Amino acid sequence: MARMIRHDATGPQEVKPQDKSAWICMCGLSQNLPHCDGSHKLAKQEEPGKCCVYDKDRKSVVEVRDDV
Ligand code: FES
């Protein structure tokens, strides 16, 4: 499975060492990048072998394509 997400950031964001664990978003769906906000739960609907295209707000799938 794969997903297409529009990103508009043009540079990095510093994540400073913290006393407790910090969870960095790896799915690209967080509304609080670079931190995970639980939005990865949306990815559970994605099917293997398909590519989900998300809307500009990264909140819903607008198209499902074959993953090439
Ligand atoms: S890994 Fe992306 S929101 Fe959790």
Order of helices and strands: EEE
Number of helices: 0
Percent helix range:
under 10%
Specify the structural class: mainly beta
Please tally the β strands and state the result: 3
Task: List cofactors, ions and other ligands.
Answer: FE2/S2 (inorganic) cluster
Overall shape:
elongated
Share of residues in strands:
15-25%
Mean pLDDT rating: 93
> Largest sheet, order of strands side by side?
1-2-3
3D architecture notes:
The chain is an all-beta fold. It has one domain (1-6, 23-68). It is built from no helices and three strands. It has strands at residues 2-4, 50-54, 61-66. Strands 1-2-3 form a three-stranded mixed sheet, with no helix packed on it. FE2/S2 (inorganic) cluster is lined by residues 25-27, 29-30, 36-40. FE2/S2 (inorganic) cluster binds at residues 25-27, 29-30, 36-40.
